[in-house]
Design a protein that fits this description.
single chain; 193 residues; alpha/beta; eight-stranded mixed beta sheet; two-stranded antiparallel ribbon; 5 helices; 30% strand
Length: 193
């Protein structure tokens, strides 16, 4: 069974963006050391255009598939990019788009949980990256096997939570912690089942 990993950026107080989902204020913390870490350890999470600009041609280390909501995907569409992670299998959970803007991007309009379970059941040494956003993560919370949380040294006060789900404690175990001089830290947790 493949793992579903929610690999996400957030503020110290656990928000992945402002109330509309904008997290551009976090970009100022992506310095050379942090970018080196991302390109070495999680190269597949860098967009195809970012990989091209940075000269990243590394093979995927953790994921061969990405699932995201329309809010996350819309960021790419707004700048004319219809396949932001063309180096991965791309899925977008949406009921708003009638057809995919790109032949390699599959839309999931219904039964997101069922489709993700099908993807998890596939035979592959690599996992599935849940890119965002909050509502999709909330729908898939019971399917999330791992969290990789890039925490930026900012407090939002309010905004879009990591999981748009009702209250119910779910336990995870800390597997790894990496701290950077600029105040960013990356935590990796595994689900305790």
């Amino acid at each position: 069974m493949r793992k579903l990993t929610y690999f996400i950026a957030c503020s110290i107080d656990g928000f992945i963006g402002d109330p509309e989902g904008d997290a551009t204020s976090m970009y100022t913390f992506v310095d050379a050391a942090f970018l080196e870490f991302l390109t070495a350890e999680y190269p597949e999470t860098i967009s195809a255009q970012g990989r091209e600009q940075l000269g990243v041609d590394a093979e995927s280390k953790h994921y061969d598939t990405v699932v995201q909501g329309l809010g996350s995907y819309q960021l790419a569409l707004d700048i004319g990019i219809t396949s932001p992670y063309s180096h991965l299998r791309e899925f977008v959970a949406t009921r708003s788009l009638a057809e995919s803007p790109h032949p390699d991007v599959e839309l999931i309009a219904d039964d997101l949980v069922g489709r993700v379970r099908e993807l998890k059941a596939e035979d592959s040494p690599l996992g599935i990256w849940l890119c965002g956003g909050s509502r999709i993560a909330g729908q898939l919370i019971e399917e999330v096997d791992e969290l990789v949380i890039k925490t930026y040294p900012q407090v939002y006060g309010s905004g879009m939570p990591m999981f748009g789900a009702g209250f119910e404690p779910r336990d995870f175990e800390l597997e790894d912690l990496r701290v950077f001089d600029n105040g960013v830290f990356v935590r990796r947790y595994s689900r305790k089942r």
